[in-house]
Amino acid sequence: MTDLSVDLGFIKLKNPVIAASGTFGYGLEFAPFMDLKKLGGFVVKGLYFSPREGNPPPRIAETPSGMINAIGLQGVGVKNFADEILPELKKYDTSVFINVCGEDEEEYARVVDFLNGLEGIAAYELNISCPNVKKEGKCPAQDPEATYSVVKRVKEISRCPVITKLSPNVTDIVEIAQSAEEAGSDAISLVNTFLAMAIDIETQKTKIANVFGGLSGPAIKPLAVRMVFQAASVVNIPVLGMGGIATGGDAVEFMLAGASAVQVGTANFIDPDATIQIIREIETYCKNQNIDRVEEIIGKVQI
Amino acid sequence: MTDLSVDLGFIKLKNPVIAASGTFGYGLEFAPFMDLKKLGGFVVKGLYFSPREGNPPPRIAETPSGMINAIGLQGVGVKNFADEILPELKKYDTSVFINVCGEDEEEYARVVDFLNGLEGIAAYELNISCPNVKKEGKCPAQDPEATYSVVKRVKEISRCPVITKLSPNVTDIVEIAQSAEEAGSDAISLVNTFLAMAIDIETQKTKIANVFGGLSGPAIKPLAVRMVFQAASVVNIPVLGMGGIATGGDAVEFMLAGASAVQVGTANFIDPDATIQIIREIETYCKNQNIDRVEEIIGKVQI
Amino acid sequence: MLESILMIKDPSARITYRRNWGDYYLIRITSPEIAQKALPGQFIMARVSDRSVPLLRRPFSIHSREGDSLEIFFQSSGIGTTLLAGKKEGEDLDILGPLGNGFDIKNGIGKKRATAVGGGRGIAPIYFLAQELLAMGSDVTVFYGGKTARDLPLKERFEAKNLRLMCSTEDGSLGFRGFVTGLFESKMDQLNPEIVFACGPDLMMEEIAGITKKNGIPAQLSLESIMGCGFGACWGCVKKIRMSGAEEWTKICQEGPVFPADRIIWE
Amino acid sequence: MLESILMIKDPSARITYRRNWGDYYLIRITSPEIAQKALPGQFIMARVSDRSVPLLRRPFSIHSREGDSLEIFFQSSGIGTTLLAGKKEGEDLDILGPLGNGFDIKNGIGKKRATAVGGGRGIAPIYFLAQELLAMGSDVTVFYGGKTARDLPLKERFEAKNLRLMCSTEDGSLGFRGFVTGLFESKMDQLNPEIVFACGPDLMMEEIAGITKKNGIPAQLSLESIMGCGFGACWGCVKKIRMSGAEEWTKICQEGPVFPADRIIWE
Ligand SMILES: Cc1cc2nc3c(=O)[nH]c(=O)nc-3n(C[C@H](O)[C@H](O)[C@H](O)COP(=O)(O)OP(=O)(O)OC[C@H]3O[C@@H](n4cnc5c(N)ncnc54)[C@H](O)[C@@H]3O)c2cc1C
Ligand SMILES: Cc1cc2nc3c(=O)[nH]c(=O)nc-3n(C[C@H](O)[C@H](O)[C@H](O)COP(=O)(O)OP(=O)(O)OC[C@H]3O[C@@H](n4cnc5c(N)ncnc54)[C@H](O)[C@@H]3O)c2cc1C
Ligand SMILES: Cc1cc2nc3c(=O)[nH]c(=O)nc-3n(C[C@H](O)[C@H](O)[C@H](O)COP(=O)(O)O)c2cc1C
Ligand SMILES: Cc1cc2nc3c(=O)[nH]c(=O)nc-3n(C[C@H](O)[C@H](O)[C@H](O)COP(=O)(O)O)c2cc1C
Ligand code: FES
Ligand code: FES
What we know:
The complex is a heterotetramer, with two copies of chain A and two copies of chain C.
Chain A: E1 6-7, E2 12-13, E3 17-19, E4 41-43, E5 60-63, E6 66-69, H1 77-89, E7 95-100, H2 105-115, E8 123-127, H3 144-157, E9 162-165, H4 173-182, E10 187-190, E11 194-196, E12 199-200, E13 205-206, E14 213-216, H5 221-234, E15 239-242, H6 248-257, E16 261-264, H7 267-270, H8 274-288
Chain C: H1 2-5, E1 8-21, E2 24-30, H2 32-37, E3 43-47, E4 58-61, E5 64-66, E6 69-75, H3 79-85, E7 92-99, E8 113-119, H4 124-135, E9 139-146, H5 155-159, E10 164-169, E11 176-177, H6 180-191, E12 195-199, H7 202-214, E13 219-222, E14 238-243, E15 246-251, H8 252-255, E16 258-260
Parallel strand pairs in C: 8-9, 8-12, 9-10, 10-11, 12-13
Antiparallel strand pairs in C: 1-2, 1-7, 2-6, 3-4, 3-7, 5-6, 13-16, 14-15
Bound molecules: flavin-adenine dinucleotide (2 copies), flavin mononucleotide (2 copies) and FE2/S2 (inorganic) cluster (2 copies).
One FE2/S2 (inorganic) cluster binds next to helix 9 of chain D.
């Protein structure tokens, strides 16, 4: 039996597979298809303080080996979440991460402040990297100072560990990763989606009403692996890697590159039980390679 | 008959389809498969001043809808090029662009200085954006000042028009595009490849000996279209768009986003006559849409 | 929420029958659990490829159900439907279903004088619906419209049932010349339906909504939208719907695809 | 340069015959222009998919040529070869060929006492080569090695020819037990070849280079490499070769895939 558990320091996960924010609803949507407690954990859909309407459709477009989305973080807001959804999630006996969003620093703090003290939250994941909300796709994770500032602010008040979710739309992922670490982040997760655009040549309109959206799926995997490798090479906090993971082999690739755990996003849409299959495939890989503890492969790529 | 010609100001092309640097050899490799003079033009493989050895293999890896390469700009150097290859190219009656490389500003200037005055050069394309040469993938195109400086330097001595080729590995493509324009670049071309990495999970080694390489192919198209759109929205010089173009429809998408012409890269490997097919498909598109002059569609996306 | 608990993934639903009329295809699939639970107006998400191009599953209405099998009826248009059209009898198909909320025909609604309108491939769910309505003893009229006679391949299938079929084509090659909405409107007084069901492109749905509203008849419309998942996880498929008072971007896949016409906000 | 002028793209080479032994496949393709020009040791690049996964063409040695047809022999291992293995008779295949420089058997080289060694799927070009050598009146010995008897499906094909066949398997289930290089070395004195040709994995090629060098016999080795294009455009397929004096990263697809053993630099 391979030991699939991974210790992130602030939390120990059953296995390294976490369902990524925005691709796993509030978790409940997946209950018909799988046993949620088999997961390493899941991150709920991004939460702003107030409910949000989201962007007009079309919100989704397919691209070669990828998809663009601009959902615009439609969501229920913290109050509804705390009252109606969080209590439901406790039943499932797995680690629940909260993806925290904000229009500004203040809002991040308000979300965390509101949720602080509630039971059943494993950690906050600060989404400082969503490219779909503003038309230009700008976000704090594109600037080291802005990153430092918002992480610092949240760490000061948070009663839970904080994971900072980074944007791939940057020249130098290393300086952003370091800013998050310096500001006290307990871990970093990357990557969020890549700012993208697609045009319908027949109508000559953008395929996404919001003009820009975020690219996810297998297409981005080689870019995400590179960034995870670069970030993991410099920081001393755990890295949660993601971007295009669809198989156990993909998950192993991120772990070899330096990820202590992985998140699975778009693959959940294609196969609601993708995470479960990935866990099984990681186990098979470890068996074939005579690896007793999956933690042994973290960062083990030979260069 | 649709008029496929496009006027870049400094040069008029038969049609908007140019074969991209590094994917079309020195042009001659494609002569068995197609009539080179049907092209809008082609860009030769990147040239340093001296011959270069290139990177050790493996240099290529496949990824979902894409490929990573780290050729390392193996090439013959300017002297051999001028003596042996350029004279051959004159036979083909199409616009030949020279992809100019350099380890530093000085080398770009030396390459241009050496080639200056030779016949048969339509323009220089300054490759300030190749991610495969240094392990960290750093290049001038990732910094607005470095971009300004090298373009300015080359423009001062160049007797041909100068196209600056930008890197997509940046936070803000707009500021780099503007730097190139301010420095006097006659056009910009984008995107070069995205810095990427892939790991063979069986051997636990990187699939590319150089560790990092550049991602190209259909996978990057939505990212490239976005950047072309952003850059074309702010500069007043022509934009040559590329990244994952494999069909006439893809080319049209870039032109709608603001490209005055397009470059076709990876597709040439898969179909040596890809450029010819793309030209034909653009023509068909124009006919179906009742467009008399292909220039009419440049930047015409409705947002 | 209740319906969604019934969703199942069947990775090996066997294709047992396949035929086509031009680019319209009918595929019968054995998938006992999904078939048995299926209700008219619900759909499946089919994995048309095991590669990442195309990446997403494709939604198809359940066209009919018989024992352990269900049928889908579709038009091959883009890459996904072309790949699906290429599948052979004996191959397996990976499907999720039954998804969404179908037509509401319970509590006597289905027992009324009912009219169902299908445009083009939008006819797909109407066949299943008509069968269920007939089984309830309802008096059923079906309007079936398309561009040309070739776009009405299911005409005979409907004619074999104990219902009134009215066809229209845009070029007049079969039945009424014009849009199916025109034919439908012209027969309103004569048929005097108590309930109207419809499926087709947005523009057609909007017209049906207008016609039924003008005549004061309740209508249930099945909407289409690009779907990322089909089971409520991506929030990609929304349209504006009046939900418990407020207008909201509402998930078509989960709250629909069928909605009462008066709750749909047309943009 | 001369050879490359002969390269052709045939987007509709018809598959006329296909058979398999386990995961080894033989496919016959009609492609008159390419077949007529093909030389032993040359290869084709096949487009295994019209989607972008997998993206690149795949290289396959020309296994035999007859009139307007050529054959390829391959092992299905990854995504590309699996897709190719799934193609049916009557389907079209898009190929480029003939590519590269094959074995050099002109100017009397082929007329000598020749030995050819093929390991695993590396046997593919050896069959074409052996036929051409026999046609020249040469005395031919073929070494054919694999893991088990199941990896030597072409044994009978070779036996039907007028040549000496020596087989080896790693598990001893057929012929000599051990590597084909071991068998080859042990027969060196007895056969006393004047020229050696070989195709197989790098490690095997390196050993053949060593053995032939020790015995002072010229050898021509066919190398493999990941190929982006197959026709000299991408510079992706290089290995270190001694070219006109200097050691250079040399394009396998264009200058090779066959090189004189003494010009290959082993890393
Ligand atoms: C609930 C529902 C039920 C449907 N039932 C049927 C049916 O029974 N028969 C039938 O022929 N068609 C049906 N459709 C439409 C069908 O799903 C699309 O024709 C199909 O997805 C097109 O895929 P493609 O790859 O061939 O086309 P592409 O144009 O290549 O698809 C590109 C993307 O757009 C999406 N897309 C394209 N057209 C539509 C559309 N009209 N509606 C939704 N998404 C679309 C695709 O799913 C894909 O994500 C239904 C759609 C929905 C939402
Ligand atoms: C000149 C030449 C001739 C060849 N002739 C034959 C032949 O006659 N019969 C045969 O069975 N095989 C032959 N091969 C090897 C064959 O091309 C590979 O097995 C095939 O490309 C694997 O593709 P895949 O998609 O199945 O594997 P994957 O592992 O999915 O391929 C991934 C990538 O690696 C490349 N690749 C994988 N293995 C090899 C390899 N051994 N050599 C080169 N590239 C590889 C693929 O082309 C692709 O780009 C030849 C290779 C070369 C270079
Ligand atoms: C439809 C959709 C919605 C998303 N919503 C969120 C979100 O709310 N918060 C967040 O941090 N990331 C969000 N993401 C990004 C994913 O969590 C993940 O970072 C990204 O999709 C890359 O992983 P993948 O390629 O496995 O999908 C979303 C992605 C998609 C596709
Ligand atoms: C094998 C290979 C070699 C390349 N060499 C060069 C080069 O020498 N100079 C350059 O400016 N770009 C080079 N590029 C980048 C391409 O010109 C192009 O910008 C990029 O591949 C994106 O376009 P594509 O997706 O159509 O390939 C190379 C790309 C590939 C795949
Ligand atoms: S399709 Fe994903 S929520 Fe409706
Ligand atoms: S495979 Fe492209 S140069 Fe050899």
